[in-house]
C-alpha cells in the first residue's frame, strides 16, 4: 500500500481542466517532489516501527531482564558477605620513589627549579583542602578554633614520604588515609587575611554596594610528622560525640 501510494504521488496529474489541444496540464515539479519525499519518509518510519513493535510485546525480554537483575543482586550479596569489616586499618600501600625520565629540554633550568626529591613531607587534608607540609615549616590556613600556643594533631594524612631504616626514601600511599600517621602542629597566632573586595550591582535598579571582607587566618608550625603503627588508637575529639552513647548502628 505504501509503494502504491508513492507511485500514485509520483504519477502526473491534471490540474482540473483540459488545456488547449486536449492535453492534461501536469502538476508542478516542486509539488511532485514534496509528495515523493513525504511518501518515502512515511514508509521508512512505518517500516522502522513495524520492526521495533514486536520487541515491546515479547515476554522474553522482560524475563531476561528479571533474570539479570536477580543475578546482579545475588552477586552483590555474596560480595557484601565476603567483604572486610568497615575499618581502614592497614589499608595503605608502600612504594619506592620512581625515577622520572630524563628531560634534556629542561637541563639548563633544572638547577633553578625547586624540587622535593630530597625532602621528607606529607600530604595532609585540613580546611577542606590538601596541603603538602614539611617539618619545621610555617603555614597559614583558614581559621582553626584553638588558642595560640595550643598543640593540634592532624589525623587526615593522605601520603607520607620518609626514609626507612636503610636510609632510602619510601612513599606510603593512603587508601584514602594512611593509618597510624599524623602531623603535630603548634598554633602560633591568629590574624586577618588580605582584603577581598565585594562589589554588587543591579542594572536599572539603582542598586550598587561595595565592601571589603577580611577572612580570619591561622598561622601554625609543623612540629613533626609521625608514621605510627596501623593498630594505634586515633587520638582526638570525635566529630559527633553524642553518637558514642546512642543506640548501636546497624552495619
Structure commentary:
The protein has 251 residues and is an alpha+beta fold. It is built from three helices and eleven strands, in the order αααβββββββββββ. The strands form three sheets. It has a five-stranded antiparallel sheet with strand order 1-7-6-2-3, with no helix packed on it. A four-stranded antiparallel sheet has the order 4-11-8-5, with no helix packed on it. β6 and β7 (169-174) form a beta hairpin. α1 (2-10) runs antiparallel to α2 (29-57). The radius of gyration is 37 Å and the shape is extended.
**DSSP helical segment count:** 3
Integer-rounded radius of gyration: 37 Å
Helix content: 10-25%
Give the CA-CA distance, first to last residue. Answer: 65 Å
Total beta-strand segments? 11
- Strand count, sense and closure of the main sheet? 5 strands, antiparallel
How are the strands of the largest sheet arranged?
1-7-6-2-3
Question: Low-confidence parts, pLDDT < 50 over ≥5 residues?
Answer: 16-20, 79-88
Give the helix/strand class. alpha+beta
Kindly report the average pLDDT value.
75
Order of secondary-structure elements? HHHEEEEEEEEEEE
What is the molecular shape?
Answer: extended
Strand content: 25-35%
Amino acid at each position: 500500500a505504501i509503494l502504491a501510494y508513492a507511485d500514485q504521488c509520483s504519477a502526473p496529474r491534471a490540474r482540473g481542466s483540459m488545456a488547449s489541444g486536449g492535453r492534461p496540464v501536469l502538476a508542478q515539479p516542486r509539488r511532485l517532489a514534496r509528495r515523493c519525499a513525504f511518501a518515502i519518509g512515511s514508509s521508512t518510519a512505518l517500516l522502522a516501527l513495524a520492526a521495533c513493535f514486536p520487541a515491546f510485546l515479547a515476554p522474553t525480554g522482560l524475563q531476561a531482564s528479571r533474570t539479570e537483575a536477580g543475578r546482579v543482586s545475588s552477586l552483590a550479596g555474596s560480595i557484601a558477605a565476603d567483604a572486610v569489616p568497615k575499618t581502614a586499618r592497614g589499608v595503605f600501600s608502600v612504594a619506592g620513589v620512581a625515577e622520572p625520565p630524563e628531560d634534556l629540554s629542561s637541563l639548563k633550568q633544572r638547577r633553578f627549579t625547586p624540587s622535593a626529591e630530597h625532602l621528607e613531607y606529607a600530604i595532609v587534608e585540613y580546611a577542606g583542602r590538601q596541603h603538602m607540609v614539611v617539618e619545621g615549616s610555617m603555614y597559614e590556613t583558614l581559621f582553626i578554633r584553638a588558642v595560640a600556643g595550643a598543640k593540634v594533631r592532624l589525623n587526615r594524612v593522605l601520603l607520607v614520604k620518609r626514609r626507612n631504616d636503610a636510609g632510602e626514601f619510601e612513599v606510603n600511599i593512603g587508601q584514602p588515609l594512611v593509618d597510624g600517621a599524623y602531623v603535630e602542629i603548634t598554633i602560633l597566632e591568629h590574624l586577618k587575611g588580605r582584603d577581598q573586595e565585594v562589589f554588587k550591582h543591579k542594572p536599572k535598579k539603582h542598586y550598587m554596594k561595595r565592601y571589603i571582607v577580611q577572612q580570619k587566618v591561622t598561622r601554625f608550625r609543623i612540629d613533626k610528622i609521625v608514621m605510627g603503627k596501623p593498630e594505634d588508637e586515633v587520638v582526638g575529639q570525635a566529630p559527633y560525640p553524642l553518637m558514642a552513647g546512642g543506640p548501636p548502628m546497624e552495619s
